[in-house]
Structures are given as C-alpha cells and as structure tokens.
Amino acid sequence: MSAPALSPELAAKRDALLDFFRPWQGCVVAYSGGVDSAVVAQAAALVLRERALAVTGASPSLPQGELQAAAELARRMGIRHRVVHTQEFANPNYVQNAPDRCYHCKTELYTRLAAIAREVGAEVIVNGANLDDQRDYRPGMQAAAEHGVRSPLVEAGLVKADVRLLAAHWELPVAEKPAAPCLSSRVAYGEAVTPERLRIIEQAEQWLRRLGLAELRVRYHPGDLARIEVPLSAIAQLVQPGLREALVQHFRELGFRYVTLDLAGFRSGSLNVLVAPEQLLSPRRPHS
C-alpha cells in the first residue's frame, strides 16, 4: 500500500517543517518515540542527516518497552539516537507532585540536552510540541522557553491531526499510536511520585492492555485508590461477571486498596480538573 498523498495545505506545512531545519548545522531532538517527536526527528534526519541527533530521556517514569521501541524507530528513520538517564526523582519539587511537576521534569531533560548539544556542536534543541498542545495545561513548555528549545511543529502550523497524516505519509509505524504520556502523569497532584507507585500503575495498565484495550489510563488517587479510564464502549466489558472479580483481585495484589471504574470514560489530562483555574493560568513561581 502506497503512502497517502498530502493535501496542498498539509504539503505546505510539511515544507515549512523541513525548511525549519535548513539553516542549522546540527540539532538535538527531544525524542520520546511518540508520533509528534518522531515526525520532528524524521524531518530533522531528512534535512540534516548525520548532523541530527535524537535523544530519549530514560527514568522510572518511562513505561517499559517504550525505550526499545523508540530506538528501533530511530534506526528506521535513519537518525542517530542516544539515551540519557535523567534524575528528576532526585528533585523534591518533582517528587512532591505539585501541578508544575512537568516543569521540573522538562527542566532536568533540557538541561541534559543542552549539555549534549554543546558536546556535539548542535546549534538548536527541538521538541515535539504541536499547536494543539498550546490549548492544554503544559508547564513543561515554560521549561522549554527558559532553555531556548524550539517547537518546529508549532512554528510550521501543525495540529495533532496534521502530525498523524504526515507520519502516515512518511510511513512511520507510530502514525496511529495512542498518546503515551509519562507514568507520573497518572498520579493525582499532591500525592508523592515514587518508582514503586509508577511500577504498580504500569503493571495494572499492562494487565488491561492484555484484554485488547488500547486507550486507557490507571490513575492513582489518595488511599491507594485506582481510577480506571477506558473508552465508554469498553466499560461494559470490564464489569462482566468473572472479569470484574479478576480485575479487582489483580489490582489489589499489585497494591491498590480500592479499585474504581470512571463512568465518564477515557480522556487525556483528566487530573487537571483537580487544579484550581488560577493555578493553570498563572505563571509558575519558583519554589523556595
């Protein structure tokens, strides 16, 4: 099957994305292996070839298997790839899990990427943010601004749907990959983020994926409470006799005391409803 053709509008955005990289002698891509950063990495590789470097941050917040998948995709795209082990868990401001947690994570990542960029002589660091990300609460974007990190997808005018179409055009296998934010994003704000909690969240999600579910989240709330989000069409499946009992038993064996199913269904960023509007809109203030 041939790659889908692009509309004239999206072809113009693709060209703008490629043009972003032409002035640079080298770049470092903050690369997770998701569709957004993969499209950015592919564009960088097409223009800069060996002068482009994709870097993946590895820590307990990265789901198992994602690192290997990112490395395999980088090889397929023909871009150099490096893994850096980030230390955000050494930062109390990250572990305490205030609404600005992502700021501290991205600050750690971009600090590491800046050092790598100096080492390899890259002039610019880029990430995979797209225009749709600007409509959500993303404290990590402040860290990007503070470190001079550019967002080529934003600058080229691409929204998420454009990114997926461009990924399909370039025949990237992640074109339809569901969003896979870090495991720490499953922990309710104010509850400490620990490797142990992330481990049981990941194991719980793996159990649900073995049922054939793709889009899902297991959220951790106070009192070792699991709140399961799946598409509305899958809720009936999880409450079937036999399966419901097995699910509860497995989650309790993992360490959850309470197991709940969110009747509102799956939605990205649902923990942000716990944050006061002024916290979402006001700039991050440094911790004392």
Set down the secondary structure blueprint.
Layout lengths: L7 H14 L5 E4 L4 H14 L3 E7 L7 H12 L2 E6 L6 H4 L5 H20 L3 E3 L13 H7 L5 H4 L4 H10 L25 H15 L7 E5 L3 E5 L2 H7 L4 H12 L3 E4 L15 H5 L7
Parallel strand pairs: 1-2, 1-4, 2-3, 6-7
Antiparallel strand pairs: 5-6
Task: Provide structural commentary.
The chain has a four-stranded parallel sheet with strand order 3-2-1-4, with helices on both faces. It has a three-stranded mixed sheet with strand order 5-6-7, covered by helices on one side. It contains twelve helices and seven strands. The protein starts with 7 loop residues before the first helix and ends in a 7-residue tail after the last helix. It has helices spanning 8-21, 35-48, 66-77, 92-95, 101-120, 140-146, 152-155, 160-169, 195-209, 232-238, 243-254, 277-281; strands spanning 27-30, 52-58, 80-85, 124-126, 217-221, 225-229, 258-261. 43% of the residues lie in helices and 12% in strands. It is of the alpha/beta class. The protein folds into two domains: 8-169, Rossmann fold (3-Layer(aba) Sandwich); 183-267, 2-Layer Sandwich (GMP Synthetase, Chain A, domain 3), CATH 3.30.300. β1 (27-30), α2 and β2 form a beta-alpha-beta unit. The radius of gyration is 20 Å and the shape is globular.
